[in-house]
Write a structure and sequence with these properties.
Blueprint: H1 2-14, E1 18-23, H2 26-29, H3 43-46, H4 49-52, H5 55-60, H6 62-77, H7 83-94, E2 96-101, H8 107-111, E3 117-118, E4 121-128, E5 134-135, E6 158-162, H9 171-182, E7 186-190, H10 201-208, E8 212-216, E9 229-231, H11 235-243
Parallel strand pairs: 1-2, 1-7, 2-3, 7-8, 8-9
Antiparallel strand pairs: 4-5, 4-6
Bound molecules: adenosine-5-diphosphoribose.
Residues 24-26, 29-30, 35-38, 42, 102, 120, 191-193, 196, 216-219, 221, 234-235 line the site of adenosine-5-diphosphoribose.
Length: 248
């Protein structure tokens, strides 16, 4: 089954001029970054997102939220891109392959991908919660549950540069991602449960615009039914198999 799906995917990408890849937390799972919704190991199985990933949580307890994101930064900094990230970067260096990610880690860039569209922001691009000035922040793995966030010159607090629940996506990033979804011949979904919108809607956008939609995910997802080809395998296994043989 998987072999036949990979063969179909290889054929589709060989015939494609433009490929867009939308990645989610499963892309980084084999690097050691836990996903959000996997039942036993997902981040949201251990933490209530409403207490760490909303503007209200930040307002209520910024030190709790800051410590949580510092722990996530430290975790990401300690791991490496996996074979899937590397395969995508090599593929994009020789063909028109654009990466759109929901991930706030920097593993695509560390594998060599450039111009990655980050729909949900970045762990490493912090900004003031009042004047929005960007701040670079030293990564500290905190001992306790709370860590006071740095202060901005304007008196505001430095917040994580990620998109929290209830916040809008960076406008340019979503517009560019929509253009990539509309303008591609093949749209590949990797490691996303497809439950968070508007990112998940890009698969529908691509499909409606005539792209062949491929899913790489060991589990069935909310988006499986809009996919033409479903590969029930992992990012680090399936992406090298497809990208390694694709001319673009
Ligand atoms: N390879 C490919 N897919 C995998 C792998 C793997 N090695 N391991 C797990 N997966 C799949 C899971 O089966 C699941 O469908 O990755 C998916 C991860 O889903 P989520 O945890 O929901 O992550 P994601 O889709 O990226 O979440 C979207 O939700 O909480 C927010 O802002 C956060 O960007 C995130 C958004």
């Amino acid at each position: 089954m998987t072999d036949a799906a990979i063969a179909a995917a290889v054929e589709a990408v060989r015939a494609a001029d433009v490929v867009t890849v939308l990645t989610g937390a499963g892309m980084s799972a084999e690097s050691g970054v836990p996903t959000f919704r996997d039942v036993a190991t997902g981040v949201w199985a251990k933490y209530d997102p409403m207490t760490v990933a909303t503007p209200e949580a930040w307002e209520a307890d910024p030190a709790l939220v800051w410590a949580w994101y510092q722990r996530r930064r430290a975790l990401v900094q300690a791991v490496q891109p996996n074979a899937g990230h590397h395969a995508l970067a090599r593929w994009a260096s020789r063909a028109d392959v654009g990466v759109v990610t929901q991930n706030v880690d920097d593993l695509h860039e560390r594998a060599g991908s450039s111009d990655v569209i980050h729909l949900h922001g970045s762990l490493f691009a912090c900004r003031c919660d009042m004047c929005e000035r960007p701040h670079s922040v030293a990564v500290i793995d905190p001992d306790g549950d709370r860590l006071t966030p740095p202060e901005c010159e304007c008196g505001g607090q430095v917040r994580p540069g990620v998109v929290w629940f209830g916040e809008e996506l960076p406008h340019n990033a979503f517009a560019e991602a929509t253009a990539r979804a509309t303008g591609c011949d093949v749209f590949v979904l990797v490691g996303t449960s497809g439950v968070v919108y508007p990112a998940a809607g890009l698969a529908h956008t691509a499909r409606d615009a005539g792209a062949t939609v491929i899913e790489i995910n060991p589990q069935e997802t909310e988006l499986s039914e809009v996919c033409d080809i479903t590969i029930r395998s992992t990012a680090a296994t399936a992406l090298p198999a497809i990208a390694g043989t694709a001319s673009g």
